[in-house]
From TrEMBL:
Keywords annotated in UniProt: Signal
A molecular-function term among this protein's GO annotations: transmembrane transporter activity
Name assigned to this protein: Efflux RND transporter periplasmic adaptor subunit
Signal sequence segment: 1-33
Organism for this UniProt entry: Methylobacterium soli
Residue ranges, annotated region (Disordered): 136-158
Amino acid sequence: MRKRLSSLLIQRGLFIGTAAGLLVGLCAGPALAQAPGGPPPTVSVAKPVVREIVERDAYTGRFDPVEFVEVRARVTGYLDKIAFQDGATVKKGDLLFVIDRRPYKAALDQAQATLTSAKARLNFTQTDLDRAQTLSRSGNISEQVTDQRRQASQTAQADVDNAEAALRQAQLNYDFTEVRSPINGRISRRLVTEGNIVITDQTLLTTIVSLDPIYFGFTVDERSFLKYQGSLGIGMGQTQQGKGVPIVIALTGEEKPTRKGTLDFVDNRVDNQTGTVLLRATVENPDGFIKPGLFGIVSLPATKPFQGILIPDDAVAANQDKRIVYVIAEDGTASAKDVKLGPKVDGYRVISGGLKGDETIVINGITRVRPGAKVTPEMKTLPPSRS
């Protein structure tokens, strides 16, 4: 019985050992397939794109109207009429509001009557003076009387001048009862309804903004401004040779810029609190689609045109705090080369340093590349642009 039990245990142990051996063999199969001596891994390689480019920087800014007017009453009175639709487009000189004109018409008529009376007195005193001067030459009137009549004539002339000034003021006040648009643009809503009293220079009636063209303002840091001043020729209060720098703007939600403009103003000082400089571009807005206050992202040239080296971002690997690119020699040997990255242009990454542009680099499969090891390269051709 004991012998039979021992035999069974031995057979079971042999079976377990055999199964374990088979399992180890199956698990070791892939490892043996990847052991040294196998074929080099296949990677995609290509030459960098070398062409003339311009690096661009992007900033967030806001649109502002070229002209903005707060429409206020220039005379006091009750609002009699509103002559526009809220939100309408108006032209310079269009009638907007009418203030009760009757009191000012009465004042105008009174000023006119006062002027007429003053002119009549002037005519009388001038005739009286002429008569006195004639009698004075014949000795029939004293010199004192002549002087008194001369003084009366001069006083009458002053009264006429004063009446004419009062008439002009009355005419202005009468004209100011009609409030007209001082600019072309889009008007806001009415802020005062008919029947309310409006006070001179105090009551805000509405606002008007111009839409075409429109300003786009943004700020840049001091370091960037100095860079632009050297590369683009913009300076404090001036632009590139007085012609302006072309820019493009993307509105909120747009993936690509859709609006073109010209950078034509640089502020005359650096803000002491923020260390930034205000720049402003003028943007054409013929359809009135852009409204003042909207945000946008401006893209402006940061350099002069130069021959740039462009590679895909997928070709860049990280080595601690460095960025490297794998360069493949003619015999298929890979070597890591430190590179300095620049901005993105047309879907590619600009290489600011580390490459000459004639190297063959790995663009796909960099995880299978090790420095000093060989690879099987598959040559590809990069398009001029990926955007």
